[in-house]
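the two lines:
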Amino acid sequence: MNLKEQCEDLARRARAASRQLATARGDWRNRWLTGSASALESRAADIIKANSLDLAAAEQARLAPAMVDRLRLDAARIRACADGLREIAGLPDPVGRVIDSNVRPNGLHVHKVSVPLGVIFFIYESRPNVTVDAAGLCVKSGNAIILRGGKEALHTNTALHDILAGELTRAGLPADAVQLVTTVDRAAVGELLQLDKWIDLVIPRGGESLIRRVAEEAAMPVLKHYQGNCHIVVDRDADLAMAERIIVNAKCQRPGVCNAAESLLVHADIARQFLPHIADVLRRKGVELRGCPVTRELAAHAVAATEADYAAEFLDLILSVKVVANLEEAIEHISRYGSGHTEAIITGNLASAQRFTTAVDSSAVMVNASTRFNDGYEFGLGAEIGISTDKFHARGPCGLQELCSYKYIVTGDGQVRE
Amino acid sequence: MNLKEQCEDLARRARAASRQLATARGDWRNRWLTGSASALESRAADIIKANSLDLAAAEQARLAPAMVDRLRLDAARIRACADGLREIAGLPDPVGRVIDSNVRPNGLHVHKVSVPLGVIFFIYESRPNVTVDAAGLCVKSGNAIILRGGKEALHTNTALHDILAGELTRAGLPADAVQLVTTVDRAAVGELLQLDKWIDLVIPRGGESLIRRVAEEAAMPVLKHYQGNCHIVVDRDADLAMAERIIVNAKCQRPGVCNAAESLLVHADIARQFLPHIADVLRRKGVELRGCPVTRELAAHAVAATEADYAAEFLDLILSVKVVANLEEAIEHISRYGSGHTEAIITGNLASAQRFTTAVDSSAVMVNASTRFNDGYEFGLGAEIGISTDKFHARGPCGLQELCSYKYIVTGDGQVRE
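prediction for all of em together
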């Protein structure tokens, strides 16, 4: 088989598996999750051995130490993967849920029922624990998954996939429900992205260039997760101690993640009181400020912000700052520079909170809370496969429900249309 | 401005209008709906005059009489358009609805709230009443709409748009919320399909070639409505009188629509009893049968079915027929040839009904009811903008809810993440 035929064969088998999986009982899917968890732990030595090959190659290729660390799986991390699967097993079954229903005047019972999407193509980089998480979420939601990890993790992913696929058979589920693309030929991705006949959704998780490439090439829908240029607005009526606590948390607790704050907008009426203080606090935390002229007047160590700074997702201890004349200017600024991910307002004023949450068009809009809460676990949705910055199908944290579609099941006793 | 600049200007204005519309009160949107309904009626003479220009051109171009009739607007049809808008005004507001909510252990209130999608590009053919329907549904759901109708209806659509846009201003809403592409240059569609920066969704409504072209070119999501190759399965345990009634309704009541039946699958155990009779009934209704060898044995006038017949959406008084050994063969056949639109089973057996509704992956699966019920009104969703054969975002009838996205509104009192 040439590459194209290999990809078609893989996708066709995923489709066939997805049809079986869609009607498999929830306890079979859970049995696979808990069985896989145990198997990962009992075969940890095999995984670590495969992982050591990837680590050696990464060191030889002089990958950055942070990258090498992301690649590493030790006993503790394997246990965490296993616990993740057990946690997914404990979540409610997202399949077969009656989302809505009504009985029509003619006696027809109309039920809107959640069903799996079908086949999901998941493209991701480095961290091999994602292999386990993504497979767990997809099988739990009745979807077949085609995994395409980074080539630097291929030995590890192959060992993990071997265990997961073996457990599918033991649980009475089709082994093709979890498949791994093992060729390092990048053209395989391009081939698979054309197979919308068998693949229902592609989820790229990684840098923006990967996501853009996939979005451009894919014939099927793409669940996109672009950057998070998250704003915090400190309103005139803010509790300033609360504002400080939230800003420090949103900027400093984990600056490298998409729901960290990247930009601070301060109402002019409290700027003179608040900005010198928060600038000082952030300076001591090692945060570089890039501000507008008024900001620089009030915080001497702030450097001048450029247009690019206001649009940037720094993922680092850098914060752009702007003093705004009023709430409307803050909303305009967010509409212009924001990425639709997460924005927060700190205010004690009801009208400001209402105006902000209504007018700001982002996946999550927070009032008096840290932007860092935009997360599947924190929202009570359970494990997530990503945070969507799209508005179509799923927005914000994507958990089990977001990996489902629905169908209408209509039951009658002979009704015909007049 | 050249064409590209014109399209960008139009899309940018739609985006600005959509931001205003998203925060406009429901009663303003309803005021526009009822105001437009009255204006359509009071300015019926203008519309009919514009329509007569399109009709004259259509007759000169020797359009088929059925096409010319679809194009025609008279006082009664204008009144129906106006009543449609009044009906939409009476539907519940789809915007700002709390879809789901929970209070987290840390006291955060998480609300999942419906919001408009933003800007919708609607491409459609012929019937000018669709102009009014689509604008009504979009504005009611807080979306701006860009309308691109067929060039054969341009005078009529211009007159209708003129009234709708004027009423926007009178209702205190942005006039750019409803825009019409008036250039006949087909390249305008291509330009607009690239503007995913400002346009959130495109809905093509028309023939399959239009939909395919749009799906291939569009940079933004597409709500697709492909063909409906709808099946009826008559199970071994069917009430045969009910089966007859439903088959005749699904095939003959309106053969030209997407939820009409195109294929009949009969369980072998009752074929000898049922097929000669139903074949005779259908013959008398003018239905041509294209069947498998067993069908042809039992119904002498049936012609031989080809592979293409089993895959076809006839939209005509033609029905493909196959005798199947059991329910599983019927499900396999549907999986192979079906279009995922609507399938029905006629059965008195609970296990058959459950197996069919679980295993068949179509937007609507009916038990003992006509396929013709797959419709927004019939499901109690109100007016619809189309029936989606996609599984992503919206499936089946797309009404006001399906024209919405959602966002998370999170309210705290100073929570930060540990």
